[in-house]
Design a protein that fits this description.
The structure holds 2 protein chains of 2 kinds.
Chain A: E1 2-3, E2 12-18, H1 23-30, E3 38-44, E4 51-55, E5 58-62, H2 64-67, E6 70-72
Antiparallel strand pairs in A: 1-6, 2-3, 2-6, 3-4, 4-5
Chain B: E1 6-12, H1 18-26, E2 31-34, E3 41-46, E4 54-58, H2 70-80, E5 91-97, H3 101-111, E6 118-123, H4 125-130, H5 137-144, E7 148-150, H6 159-171, H7 184-198, H8 204-209, H9 220-228, H10 233-261, H11 264-279, H12 293-302, H13 307-326, H14 328-348, H15 353-370, H16 373-389, H17 391-403, H18 413-419, H19 423-429, H20 436-445, H21 455-465, E8 470-471, E9 476-477, H22 478-503, E10 515-517, H23 525-559, H24 565-576, H25 583-602, H26 604-611, H27 613-616, H28 623-631, H29 638-646, H30 658-666, H31 678-690, H32 695-705, H33 709-737
Parallel strand pairs in B: 1-4, 1-5, 5-6, 6-7
Antiparallel strand pairs in B: 2-3, 3-4, 8-9
Helix pairs in contact in B: 3-11, 7-9, 7-10, 9-10, 12-13, 13-16, 14-15, 15-23, 16-19, 16-23, 18-19, 19-32, 20-22, 21-22, 21-30, 21-31, 22-31, 23-32, 24-25, 25-26, 26-28, 28-29, 31-33, 32-33
The chains are: A alpha+beta, B alpha/beta.
Chain lengths: 98, 738
């Protein structure tokens, strides 16, 4: 089955199930990872792990090992409802600097 | 209205601006302490301008009331009023992030089950509005059945209304019917389970230890947690109280719930989120889930695989520069002030025991506390800014993979890096790590990071004994390589230590990394400064007093029981001589140095040094080095002054003193062999690299872990490792070199 870590940047999936009954799965549920919700994969950290995604309007960082517990239905599309107001998904360096 | 103090508890998810709101509500009247036996901070403030005495208690940010550790358990007990010795909470103020209303309602749904009055502070209402998110507060209030106040803590908007609402809710103190967001069947089964338990006798040891509330059966909410949280803290408490029969009944009720309502893990989430959805119907405007643009654009740079890492490295460099190098300016000022006061005392008092106590014990003791403040203030200034603007979570995100090497998460990076300057602020900075086991592992390895106090020892040994060999046209020198190796030793030892700790003493289920990356915002100046102030205050009051006491005790062991008559007489004569020049004075000064060395040898410290000589001989050390090592257990840098005293150079030497360098080069065993050689120098350096020679660090560990167990453990295992490390270094080097 498809899991959150397998999505490509920008892709959205619908959560089917969260694996496990331990602290990690509880934390995922508390933070909004529940069946039926849409989750968008945003990017990975420079060293490949953890990854950043968007769920219920908040950005969450989680490790690949944790993302593998989030089981998804097939990805919807790149231009999913969550993404329509996100202007800067691809790195755009010229616009903003710290 | 009663005259007794009334307690209000502030709860909320992380990143809801709760700390800022707490600061705004309570002004500067905040006291911090620890709850007994756990590490969570108890922050108590007073509601400013209140008509009656209202005590405001701030709990750590949490996503749920599902305790999985003793710390989280205490937080829940503060809310339910079951914590022994704590007054009952009369009102709960829940801080909700208006931009993430639905997710925040998960916690609200649990709070409403407690049967206590709740007031909702809908914070960050300004950022919700600025992105076109309209929230109908009246409707939300009607749906939830509790007052809802839109506020913006950072802009100080809606604060007076919230305060008035809190006071009004307290006035109306009434029985508040618990809400029941879960299916009715669940609550029925919960009641049956409660009935089952009341038929059981409690475990005798639980009765003896007085573990549970008097009535025996835990409150309804805690029973509910015991059923829902498999492997959670409520389950552990229940099993401790009711033993095997209790555990059997718990499994029985879980089986029934699963057969009737579906998987246990889904029962709670499904129904709470469905409840949250119902509560927000017609409350949220259309733009419910808009991604905020600026944060995404900033993230595109700040967590970019090249720019993100570069900016991170630059930031860390600046912070490190500040605490390592630039805090040297205020630290030098503190030392100058200390010298000034000492001089004043010396000129006002005749030499003698009392003057020695005041100068070398009391003033030096106060100095040894105050000297840490610049570093603590600087580190916490940066920590608070990074935390408040939202970058801290990104920093953890960037380096998490790297910290996996230690078996720790990205949140441990900054505390460990700060420990290279000084472990005291580093250990204090571990408060950003919310997982207890990760936090403790970080605290226990932080003293291995080579702090600035070790540098003088390295420099003295290297300049005296490492041959001045350089290659590549002087670009790489052996001295430099040895110095770098010393910095690496600590890290190399820390990695397996952390790994081992996580598998033995700090064993448990893996900590979730899952971390919210909040919206970026401009840091709130008042919140930032308050955090710096609190860190300094907590250090001075709760670690400083012990550090001071330790300094005085150490002074006493180096002073008594030796005879100081001649020493004070010489001091008197030297000070009395008008010009302080001339052959006679020089002779007196030379004698004073010899007498001081003899006094140190005769003191408790010197005697211990002699007594342990057989123990340190395998490291290549004589008793003088032994004394130096022991004298520097309170603080490493003391070794230089101690060696200066034992080698009759006086205590006013530093690592670059030619006199001290030549004295240790010329030191001989009774048979004429030199005491020091490269192997001895390396063995001393390795010992100092690994040893817990810092009372301040140990006492800060005691404060941060709220127990003596961890500082004692740190001391024992680090000393053992240092001894073994020095032994191996000496024995191997002596065989390689000779």
């Amino acid at each position: 089955m498809l899991t959150l870590d397998q999505l490509r940047p920008g892709e959205v999936g619908q959560i089917v199930r969260i694996e496990g009954v331990d602290g990690i799965s509880c934390r995922l549920r508390e933070m909004g990872f529940v069946p039926g919700e849409s989750v968008q994969f945003l990017t990975t950290a420079p060293l490949g792990d953890p990854l950043k995604c968007m769920i219920q309007g908040s950005r969450i960082a989680l490790r690949g090992s944790e993302a593998r517990r989030v089981l998804l239905a097939e990805p919807i599309s790149q231009a999913a409802p969550l993404a329509q107001k996100a202007p800067g998904l691809a790195p755009r360096l010229s616009t903003t600097g710290p | 209205m009663t005259s007794a103090t009334r307690r209000v508890v502030l709860v909320g998810n992380p990143n809801t601006g709760k700390s800022t709101l707490f600061g705004v509500l309570s002004g500067l009247s905040v006291r911090t302490a620890n709850y007994p036996g756990v590490t969570i901070e108890k922050k108590v403030g007073r509601l400013a301008d209140a008509r009656c005495e209202v005590e405001l208690v701030d709990l750590p940010g949490t996503y749920s009331l599902s305790p999985r550790s003793p710390d989280e358990w205490v937080a829940v007990e503060v809310l339910t009023g079951e914590l022994p010795g704590e007054p009952d909470a009369e009102l709960i103020v829940c801080v909700v992030n208006a931009t993430l209303l639905r997710r925040n309602l998960f916690l609200v749904s649990q709070l409403l089950e407690l049967g206590k009055p709740v007031v909702i502070a809908l914070n960050m209402i300004d950022s919700a509005r600025s992105r076109g998110l309209e929230i109908d507060c009246e409707r939300l209030s009607a749906n939830l059945g509790v007052p809802v106040f839109p506020v913006s803590a950072s802009r100080r908007e809606g604060i007076e209304e919230l305060k008035a609402g809190i006071l009004q809710a307290l006035d109306q103190a009434r029985d508040f019917a618990p809400q029941k967001p879960l299916p009715k069947r669940f609550y029925d089964l919960c009641d049956e389970f409660s009935g089952d338990l009341s038929g059981l006798t409690r475990q005798p040891q639980a009765v003896a230890a007085g573990i549970e509330p008097a009535e025996g059966i835990p409150s309804r909410y805690l029973l509910e947690r015991a059923i829902l949280d498999r492997g959670g803290e409520a389950e552990r408490q229940l099993k401790r109280q009711f033993g095997v029969p209790g555990a059997e009944r718990l499994e029985a009720v879980r089986t029934r719930i699963e057969s009737q309502l579906g998987p246990l893990s889904d029962v709670e989430c499904d129904h709470r989120y469905a409840w949250a959805k119902r509560q927000t119907e017609g409350v949220l405007g259309a733009a419910g889930n808009a991604i905020h643009g600026p944060t995404e654009r900033l993230d595109a740079v700040l967590i970019h695989r090249v720019w993100g890492l570069l900016i991170f490295a630059a930031l860390m460099f600046v912070i490190f520069q500040f605490i390592y190098a630039w805090s040297g300016i205020p630290m030098a000022a503190i030392e100058a002030a200390q010298d000034f006061v000492s001089d004043r005392v010396q000129s006002a008092m005749p030499p003698g025991t009392l003057r020695s106590l005041i100068v070398d014990g009391v003033i030096a003791g106060v100095g040894s506390v105050v000297i840490f403040l610049p570093q603590i203030a600087m580190l916490f200034l940066f920590l608070a800014i990074l935390e408040d603007c939202g970058y801290m979570a990104r920093a953890a995100f960037l380096v998490d993979r790297m910290m996996g090497l230690f078996g720790l998460s990205g949140k441990s990076f900054l505390p460990l890096m700060s420990s290279f300057a000084c472990a005291v602020p580093g250990v204090m900075a571990t408060r950003v790590i919310e997982n207890r086991r990760d936090r403790f592992a970080t605290i226990l390895i932080a003293p291995f990071m080579s702090c600035s106090a070790r540098l003088p020892v390295y420099l003295l040994m290297i300049s005296a004994f490492v041959p001045a060999i350089s290659i590549a046209g002087g670009l790489i020198s052996l001295s430099g390589v040895v110095l770098m190796a010393m910095y690496f030793v600590g890290v190399v030892v820390a990695i397996p230590t952390a790994w081992l700790l996580k598998r033995t003493l700090l064993r448990g289920e893996p900590a979730p990394f899952v971390l919210e990356l909040p919206e970026y915002k401009v840091p709130d100046l008042k919140t930032v400064l308050h955090r710096v102030w609190e860190a300094c205050k907590a250090f001075v009051i709760r670690a400083g007093t012990l550090i001071f006491a330790a300094s005085v005790v150490i002074w006493a062991t180096a002073y008594w029981p030796a005879d100081h008559t001649r020493r004070h007489e010489l001091e008197r004569m030297i000070e009395a001589s008008a010009d302080g020049e001339g052959e006679q004075v020089a002779a007196w000064e030379a004698e004073l140095k010899r007498v001081s060395a003899a006094a140190l040898e005769g003191s408790v410290l010197g005697q211990v040094g002699h007594a342990i000589e057989p123990l340190v001989r395998p490291l290549g050390w004589d008793w003088k080095i032994g004394v130096g090592a022991i004298a520097s257990f309170p603080a490493r840098e003391v070794i230089i002054a101690t060696l200066g005293t034992v080698y009759s150079m006086g205590g006013d030497v530093d690592e670059e003193s030619e006199g001290l360098i030549s004295a240790i080069r010329e030191a001989r065993w009774p048979d004429g062999r030199p005491v020091y050689n490269l192997a001895v120098a390396l063995s001393i350096m390795v010992f100092f690299a690994l040893c817990a020679q810092c009372v301040s660090t140990l006492l800060v560990i005691r404060r941060e872990t709220n127990s003596w167990r961890w500082p004692i453990l740190s001391f024992v295992y680090m000393t053992a490792l240092a001894y073994i490390g020095a032994l191996v270094t000496y024995q191997v080097t002596i065989r390689l070199v000779s």
